[in-house]
Every structure is written in C-alpha cells, then in structure tokens.
Amino acid sequence: MVRETRVSRDFLIYPIIVREGTSIHEPIDAMPGQFRCSPDILPGVVKDITSKGIPAVLLFGIPRHKDAQGTSSHRKDGVVQQAIQVIKNAVPDLIVITDVCLCEYTDHGHCGILNEKGEVINDDTLDVLASVSLSHAKAGADIIAPSDMMDGRVGVIRDALDEGGYEHTPILSYSAKYASSYYGPFREAAQSSPSFGDRKSHQMDPANVREALREVALDIEEGADLIMVKPALPYLDVIRVIADEFDEPLCAYQVSGEYSMIKAAAQRGWVDEDSCIMESVTSIKRAGADMIITYFAPRISELIA
Ligand code: PBG
Ligand code: ZN
C-alpha cells in the first residue's frame, strides 16, 4: 500500500527488429530471447504482445539492399513500411512507433549521408530523414521516432509530415541520446555498426547533463510531442532532471546492452533475472520516466499480476 512507484503494462513499448525477406525468425546471439523476423512472421509476434497487454511496439528495419545514401529507408515497399501494414492488418489497435535513422540502411553504417572525408553531413541527411518519416506515416505509423540526433531534424520532419497531411502524427524524439557502448548488442542485431569511426559527432557525451536539457528544449521548440532519454539505467539522473524540467511525456529506453547484461549474468547464475528486471524498470520509473522502451516488456507483463 505504501509503495511509491508501480510498474504497469500500459507504459511499456516493445522494440522489434524486422528483416526484409520471408519466413525469417532468427535468434539474436548477443540478445538471448530476442529475434529478428521478417514482416510475414509479425502477426504472431504482435498478437502475443497485445495479448500480454502491451500497448505499443517500436520498429527497426534491416533492408536487403544497403547503399551509401540509405535509399532503402524510404521505399514505399521498404521493410518497415511493409511491417507497419502487416501489423496494422493483424492488430489495428497496437500503437506502431517507427525508429527513423539511416545507420541500418547505409553500407557504411553511419546515421547520415557522408562527405568525401567520411563525416556525416547534417543538413543533407535531414532531407532523407524527412522522406523516411513521411513514408512511415503513409504506411500507417502512429508515431515517428527520429533516433539519428542530427541538428534540426525534428523541425524538418514536422514540416514534412504537416505538408503530407499528417499533422496529427506525433513525433517521439530521441532527444538526449548518448554515444553509448550499451548499444553494442543492438548494432550486431541490426547489422548497423559503423564500418569506421563512431557516432560522437552527433550523439551526446556521457559526461553531459546540461547539454541534455538544451537538446530537449530545442526538440520541443521544433515540435517534438514526446521526448526520450537513452540509455536508461546509466542515465537515471538525466531522466530525473528532464522529468522535473519539462512537461512533455518522457520516454526512457532500456537499451540492448542493459538487456544483455542482465541476461548474461542471470544465465551464469550470478543474479536473479526476474528480480533484476523488475528492479531496473522500477528504478527507471522512479527516476521520472512516463514510458519505458524495453526488450523485457513481454516478461515484465508476465511478472506483474
Ligand atoms: C539507430 C539506433 C540505435 C539504437 C536505437 N536506434 C543504435 C545506435 O545509435 O548505434 C540502439 C538500441 C539499443 O541498443 O537497444 N541510430
Ligand atoms: Zn543511427
């Protein structure tokens, strides 16, 4: 009765990595219990998610074809565009959020278009991100979630959505996304590791918290409806200050490395998996997150009465 923080299903978001092709349901080595699957497999996956009372999924795509410009990211029949349609047909009420970034679609693995020196060109990338966002909205996405961290992307995406007739489609911005080593398992899963260099030109320095406040303020000014801190557990203080400072719904992403560390230690019998899962999400909620993106969503749903 006196418990101050409660975990419930209705603020959970489950990430799904969708791979172009058919009949694919392959385990992700670095993330035990998680799978890459093709669009045709999704109805079963999302029906299970819905039956567990989880209201939303976050989609990532791995295309068959990658190139320097990431052109597969905004194809009408691209992998995420197909996945959205399949999910909407199978479970119309499930909220479909789509991650918008180019690193899964570029052959060099960077989040944007590069110049001759191999640097990400911020402004050229914005046009592509706008096309990706509009193509997701057209395919039926409910919420667009840019994760690239280019400057000015929220404004450009907002304009593109509005001009395309999607003024009611909200933007969930990965506002304070840190250049984190905890994305390692995801990059293996999504085959999106940069082939050279890193993402420090656009993702944030783990040492900074005032910068996170500036990033969030800018995104809100540009039209972000929901904001995010990522990763979650190593950044609970950032979640707390942003929750105190801003009124927008705040999302926290318990990322792949956070997932795999608990799984790995539990597999060795070093920690108790279920109690670590509940303790970590309770802490993220206690820090001030309204919603939590987590690969543990189905398990959490089973664990809460
Ligand atoms: C794409 C993106 C990444 C993640 C979400 N969107 C990887 C990255 O920035 O390198 C990480 C998700 C996770 O680790 O679970 N930019
Ligand atoms: Zn990226």
How would you describe what is shown here?
The chain is α/β, with parallel strands linked by helices. Strands 1, 2, 3, 4, 5, 6, 7, 8, 9 and 10 form a ten-stranded mixed beta sheet that branches. The radius of gyration is 18 Å and the shape is globular. The mean pLDDT is 97. Zinc ion binds next to loops. Ligand PBG binds next to helix 5.
Features:
305 residues; alpha/beta; ten-stranded mixed beta sheet; 10 helices; 10 strands; 17% strand; binds ligand PBG; binds zinc ion
Short description:
This protein has 305 residues and is α/β, with parallel strands linked by helices. It has helices at residues 42-51, 79-90, 122-139, 153-163, 184-189, 210-222, 236-245, 256-267, 273-287, 297-303, and strands spanning 12-19, 25-27, 35-37, 56-62, 95-100, 143-146, 172-177, 226-230, 250-254, 291-294.
Structural class: alpha/beta
Contiguous uncertain segments of 5+ residues: none
Helical percentage = 25-40%
Tell me the radius of gyration: 18 Å
Helix count, per DSSP? Answer: 10
Question: What separation lies between the terminal Cα atoms?
Answer: 15 Å
- The topology string of helices and strands comes to EEEHEHEHEHEHHEHEHHEH
Strand elements, count: 10
Mean pLDDT: 97
How many strands, which pairing sense, and closed or not: the largest β-sheet? 10 strands, mixed
Proportion of beta-strand residues:
15-25%
Q: What's the shape? A: globular
Bound molecules: ligand PBG, zinc ion
Which SSEs are present, and which pair or pack?
Blueprint: E1 12-19, E2 25-27, E3 35-37, H1 42-51, E4 56-62, H2 79-90, E5 95-100, H3 122-139, E6 143-146, H4 153-163, E7 172-177, H5 184-189, H6 210-222, E8 226-230, H7 236-245, E9 250-254, H8 256-267, H9 273-287, E10 291-294, H10 297-303
Parallel strand pairs: 1-3, 1-4, 1-10, 4-5, 5-6, 7-8, 8-9, 9-10
Antiparallel strand pairs: 2-3
Helix pairs in contact: 1-2, 2-3, 3-4, 4-6
The structure holds ligand PBG and zinc ion.
